[in-house]
Structure formats: C-alpha cells, structure tokens
Amino acid sequence: MADQPTPDSDAAIAPRPTEGFAAFVSRHQRGYQIAIWSVVVIAVLGGTVAWLVGWLEVQEAGYWGGFVVNLVSSAAVVVPAPGLFAVCAAAAPELGLNYGVLAVLGAAGSTIGELTGYLAGYGARGATQNSRYYRRIHRVVERRGGLALFVLAVVPNPLFDIGGIAAGSLGYPIIRFILWVGLGKLLKFAVFAYACRQSITWIVDLV
To answer: Of 67, 150, 167, 149, nearest to 113 (Cα)?
Structure first.
C-alpha cells in the first residue's frame, strides 16, 4: 500500500474549497483557460521578439534584463527559454553587476512566471496532464508538498512547469507555492550566479 501523507504534513493538501477561486474557475473554465494561455502566448511571443531585437541583452538591460528574461522564461509553460543563462551571462566580472542582486531578481522573476503553470493547473485536463511525467510528478507533489516543489525549483530541469501544474490541480496553497518555489529558485540562481562570476566551469556547463 502506498504511503499516505500525515494530517499535519505540508503534503496533506486540502481539497479545493467550494467557494472562492476554485469555484470561480469551475464556473468559467473555458474563459479561464483562454485567459491563462493568452498570457503564456503573449509572454512567449513578446519575450522572443524582445530577445531577438536585443531589448533584453544583459549587457544593455542589466538587472532589469535578468528579471524580465526569467519572468518570460518561466511564464512560457513547458517551453524552454534562456532565463538561467541570462543571469549567468550578467554575472560575468567584466559587466560589474552584483551577482547577489542578479540572483534575487532572477529568482523573483522566475517565481512570478511559474504562476502561469500553477494557475493552468486549475483548468481542464490537457496533453501535459495526460503524460506519464505529469502522473509521476503529481504523485510526488501530492505526497511531499513544498519539499517536492523546492527540489524541483533547485535542480535545473525542464519539468518544473509540470510540477507547477500539478500543484495547481491539487489546490496547493498559493502562498506556500510562492514561498517554496522562491526559496528553491533563489538557491539555484545564487549558486549559478556565483559560479559564473568565479568561472567555475563544471557548474557553468550545466546552464
């Protein structure tokens, strides 16, 4: 028999309430889906155009570029974008930017962007939720809650968006989601920004 989460565990996620946000989504599911995916599409297209024309070049945009690139990167659900790379590039000694500030702003932008995946979890089932990766990650998030989200946020991988969708579908509290994801992202960005500043090649190669 599979392990069951204890009642006082962070993983013991309460069912969605019958009132409030979840109830609103259930009543306006189609419109909600359209709104969320419109934000994702706009973020992807707008971020891509801005990147191609050089508006988000870290050499020009500095700290602001690190924040915006990661916001756009994370908002693009299951679409890879160079958010971590942008912070790594901005941390280069010749640019003279503070790697700690870059890590904080990059983590903040990335955490805010991840809310699109979390909110998408309230929508109808889609291709992502039918994948075997989703089912596995869903079980882990259901059992481990914030710890699972923290680990997914720390480790560079393309599957965090699926974790965000799983957290949303489970009704995981949004404040806890932001807290655990933010802490994981901050640790990851701090390590990589420092490594890029110090030219620690074996870590930089993971970007």
So the answer is: 67
pLDDT of residue 7: 44
Query: Percent of the chain having pLDDT more than 70?
Result: 60
* Confidence at residue 121, expressed as pLDDT on a 0 to 100 scale: 80
SS3 at position 97: coil
CA nearest to 41, candidates 107, 95, 120: 120
10 lies in a domain? no
In a domain, 14, yes or no: no
What are the tokens at 43?
């973020």
Q: Whole domain around residue 42: which residue ranges? A: 21-204
C-beta neighbour count of 170 within 10 angstroms = 18
**Number of domains comprising the chain:** 1
**Closest to 106 (Cα-Cα) out of 164, 162, 161, 185:** 185
Structural domain includes residue 30: yes
**Separation CA 143–CA 184 (nearest Å):** 18
When pLDDT is cut at 50, 70 and 90, the band that residue 137 belongs to is confident
- Domain membership flag for residue 130: yes
Q: Tokens 């609103």 correspond to what residue?
A: 24
Quote helix, strand, coil % in the chain, to nearest 5: 70, 0, 30
pLDDT grade, residue 202 (50/70/90)? low
Instruction: Give the mean model confidence (pLDDT) for residues 172-181.
Output: 91
H/E element, 80: none
